[in-house]
Amino acid sequence: MIRALLWILGAILLGGIVHLSTVLVMPQAATQDAYSRLAPLAPVNAMVPLAPPAGQDAIMPFMDPAFALAVCRYDISRAPLKLTAPVSQAYTSVTFYTRNSVAYYAINDRAAGRRTIELDLMTAEQHAQVPEEEDVTAADRLIIESPTTTGLIVLRALAAEPGLMPMARSVLAAAQCRVEETQQ
Amino acid sequence: MFFASCFTFVLAAVIGLGATWLTLTRGVAFGSLTIGAWTARPKSGSVDIDPYARATVARTGELPIGSGDGVAFYARTDDVGNALDGRCTVLITGMTPAARYWTLTLYDPAGRLVPNMVDRHGFTSAEIVREADGRFAISAAPRARPGNWLPTGGIEQFVLVWRLYDTPIGVATRTSKDAPMPAITRKSCS
């Protein structure tokens, strides 16, 4: 009797380990996460507009249909990335995601405080290599450190009414993300 | 001995995978903020996202709203706990917390938009028709209603998502005093 209880107790403990490890492994093992869904649509280091969610077809679940979206699938393993995005009339935001969909930084038009949002995205090592005087002279240069070398930048522009959607889309069409040509 | 160890391993796999499946499909709510029928997980939009939310996001393929951008409240039931039924008339009334803009969107439980004749899937704060005192009433119903009508397409179950953009509501918010969310009440069912 006691022996059977011990086996069951062992099973529960082992089950707990299985549970925790599957939860922790899931983000690495997922094949249908946002990055994988966007990979066929978005070339690396280029800003592409996303089709709005319509009916049963949407690139990702729970997309906000009031927003025009553009995405930049980045890879900054070789050089930092420069992002420029004009601001729409209503509301514009930029969100940075790691390869595993963790939103590590987000800023909106008002917080950026300018007509265009300009950001430099780099790894911690690349940031350390930025010459100090450059950092000082460009005081308003916003530098974001990416915890991973690949990830997603998502631009969202609100169309406050459905009729304003074309305008929100045209604002995003002017957004750019490109790797800085350095060295050589 | 051999049978006992086999039994233990099988039981461990069932317990472990079952618990994972349950937590990821039903959702566990660490650090969640619940106001009335609405639940938000403000930490999911930051690097402090918990492992369960990370696994859920990886499985469903959605991109959580960044905490510098806004916060999303989900409602799957009305105020008294009935599942939101698309064959019923469901009233959403009251006020919203402070935000520069908000949007309300109706989805099916998998997060897809529900097709309907008028191609309407939600409202933004700019297009809603309000009462004189700033309050509003939205009717989610299968058939057209006067005022703010949100078509449900008659589906069995739907999910409402209230997204607040540029808002002070976030990780520090604790109670409904800081964030008055609209009430959800079920009226007639067809």
Question: Could you characterize what this model shows?
Answer:
The complex is a heterodimer of chains A (184) and B (190). Chain A is of the alpha+beta class. Chain A folds into 2 domains: 1-29; 34-179, Immunoglobulin-like. Helix content of chain A is 32%, strand content 30%. Chain A is built from 6 helices and 9 strands. In chain A, the strands form 2 sheets. Chain A has a 5-stranded antiparallel β-sheet. A 4-stranded mixed β-sheet of chain A has the order 7-6-3-9. In chain A, strand 4 and strand 5 (103-108) form a beta hairpin. The longest helix of chain A has 28 residues, at 2-29. Chain A is globular, with a radius of gyration of 21 Å. The mean pLDDT of chain A is 86. The mean pLDDT of chain B is 87. In chain B, a hairpin with a 2-residue loop joins strand 1 and strand 2 (38-40). Chain B is of the alpha+beta class and 190 residues long. In chain B, 18% of the residues lie in helices and 28% in strands. Chain B has helices at 2-26, 51-60; strands at residues 33-35, 38-40, 70-75, 88-94, 101-107, 122-124, 136-141, 148-151, 159-165, 183-189. In chain B, the strands form 2 sheets. Chain B has a 6-stranded antiparallel β-sheet, with no helix packed on it. A 4-stranded mixed β-sheet of chain B has the order 8-7-4-10, with no helix packed on it. Chain B has one domain: Domain of unknown function DUF1214, C-terminal domain (Jelly Rolls), CATH 2.60.120.600. The chains are: A alpha+beta (184), B alpha+beta (190). At the A-B interface, helix 1, helix 2, strand 4, strand 5 and strand 8 of A face helix 1, helix 2, strand 5 and strand 9 of B.
